[in-house]
Amino acid sequence: MGERKTWSNGKKVTLVMRDEGQPERDAVLKLIYRMRERDFNSYFLHAAFTGESTEAPKTLSSAAGMIKFVFNVPGAIGYVRASEVNDTVKVVKIDGLSPREGGYKMKL
């Protein structure tokens, strides 16, 4: 939600989302943020208005673009389908589970 501005190593956190209407984005909004698209947009509009956040997440249209951006921008975090991950980016576990483990929450 952009609440954390830096990682423990001091690098700026840069959130990256897929474009609106993408099934991956819908899954992230539902399962991680527990919001609908309009609630998500309202949250960042309010955060910008009140000064709680200076910018909304960056948006990208493709998985390849997401991977390239995360690789090239220190501190960036985004998401792609497990089948699209390559060795240039690190997979972050959710609730201690990776995408190929049973019980992983992020499924389309």
Plain-language structure description:
There is one protein chain. The protein is globular, with a radius of gyration of 14 Å. By secondary structure, it is α/β, with parallel strands linked by helices. It has a single domain (1-103), classed as D-Maltodextrin-Binding Protein, domain 2, CATH 3.40.190. The protein has helices at 23-33, 37-50, 63-72, and strands at residues 14-18, 58-60, 76-77. The chain starts with 13 loop residues before the first strand and ends in a 31-residue tail after the last strand.
- The level 1 CATH classification is Alpha Beta
Specify Rg, calculated over alpha carbons: 14 Å
Q: How large is the share of residues in beta strands?
A: 5-15%
Q: In the CATH hierarchy, what is the superfamily?
A: Periplasmic binding protein-like II
Give, in order, the helices and strands. Answer: EHHEHE
Please state the structural category: alpha/beta
Reading side by side through the largest sheet, how are the strands ordered?
Answer: 2-1-3
> Distance between the terminal alpha carbons, to the nearest Å?
21 Å
Percentage of residues assigned to helices:
25-40%
CATH architecture identity = 3-Layer(aba) Sandwich
The largest sheet, given as strand count, sense and whether it forms a barrel, is: 3 strands, parallel
What is the CATH topology? D-Maltodextrin-Binding Protein, domain 2
Question: Which term fits the overall shape?
Answer: globular
What do the pLDDT scores average to? 89
Low-confidence stretches: none
- According to DSSP, the number of beta strands is 3
Q: What's the total helix number?
A: 3
Task: Indicate how many domains the architecture comprises.
Answer: 1
